[in-house]
Amino acid sequence: MAGSLPLWLRLRLSALRPAGPKAKAAVEAGQGEDRADAPLLWIWAAGTCAEAAGLVARRVAARMPDIRIAMTVRGSESAPDGLPDQVFLRAAPEDRPASVRLVLDAWRPDLVLIMDETLPAALIAETQTRGIASVLADAKFGGQDGLRLDDVSLALLGRIDRIYLRDEASLERVDDRLSGPVIVVNDGALGEPPQPLHGSEAERASMAESMGARPVWLAAAVPEAEVGPVTAAHRYAQRHAHRLLLLLVPDDESQGETLAAQLTAEGWSVARRSLEGEPELTTEIFIADDAQEYGLWYRLAALSYMGGTLSGTAQSPRSPVEAAALGSAILHGPKLAPFREDYLRLEAAKACRGVVVPEDLPEVVADLIAPERSAQLAHNAWAVTSGGAGAVETIARDLAEILSGTQPARVA
């Protein structure tokens, strides 16, 4: 009872407010529509969750052609792209009892799906009171971007029938504090598999032949400030793999000629994509001065260092998802912007390695050049980038089965 008292007080205070204009607009927009006997799914989403909610809506509609889906997106006026005809967008009602009751009375949904960074207290409480099944999807607990786990949140979560979590870490945070809901752990945030960057198979085969059986690693979008640390790591790693080849892509591809001259002066055997085309057996550093060929470089390199993550000075940093989608293991520094969320997902799944200072780079490169080390990271990374699509299918299948009555929302 102590845990639910703050929630009770919050709901009582919000109950004093009448139905708001957004709820009235949502109801008025749907007046005159014939619901017939088709099941109705209400998707309550927040602006940042809208795209993932759209993915789920499309997959549920594909499984249930006769379904109707009402989508309300809090904090956004636009719908996700590519929604099927079964989905209609409505104004997001205020999360207060009077507003929620007005919408529930008008729509009479069979199931409510919540995808939000906060928990809509009035909606969750009212659906439980009416016996309407509720599901929370794409949820993460703890951390800077996760849902809070105070007494009010735990009381609300206990009223939800089914919860889909992004990761095992979230499960560990609630496993012994929450009973009742069905809890499913997905492989990462909901999403579609990334489209791999294009790469010519003929070019890849030709390049691989010129390289022979040499081990290869890639330094992508390397700014001037990181050339020294990267080449120092390469020098050290050559002691462990003496035929090791570095594919070096400058952050500014127009600097290829200058960079080649600098490295040649330092004693390196250098070749350039824009001149020699392919490395020779004696080439130590191949300057890949064509940013349009990243699909080729990721396919050739067992390990990719993501340039700019040591210094934060890259003007055109690359997403680690690109490398993950093409089977290259990922190494990075502490500067994760603008792809911080992607790196954190990969780190949580043990799908990449990070270093804190440039001095750490040589030993980590030397360690990860070992095929068994890079292969495990690459496998984990691929699972993370493709797992979101599998999670969408899992959630869509379960929602369809709950709506059709072949699966209970909550196991008694």
UniProtKB/TrEMBL annotation:
Pathway: Bacterial outer membrane biogenesis; LPS core biosynthesis. It is found in: Cell membrane. It holds the Pfam family Glycos_transf_N. Its EC number is 2.4.99.12. It is an enzyme of class 2 (transferase). It catalyses: lipid IVA (E. coli) + CMP-3-deoxy-beta-D-manno-octulosonate = alpha-Kdo-(2->6)-lipid IVA (E. coli) + CMP + H(+). Involved in lipopolysaccharide (LPS) biosynthesis. Catalyzes the transfer of 3-deoxy-D-manno-octulosonate (Kdo) residue(s) from CMP-Kdo to lipid IV(A), the tetraacyldisaccharide-1,4'-bisphosphate precursor of lipid A. This is 3-deoxy-D-manno-octulosonic acid transferase. It comes from Thioclava nitratireducens. The lineage of its organism: Bacteria, Pseudomonadati, Pseudomonadota, Alphaproteobacteria, Rhodobacterales.
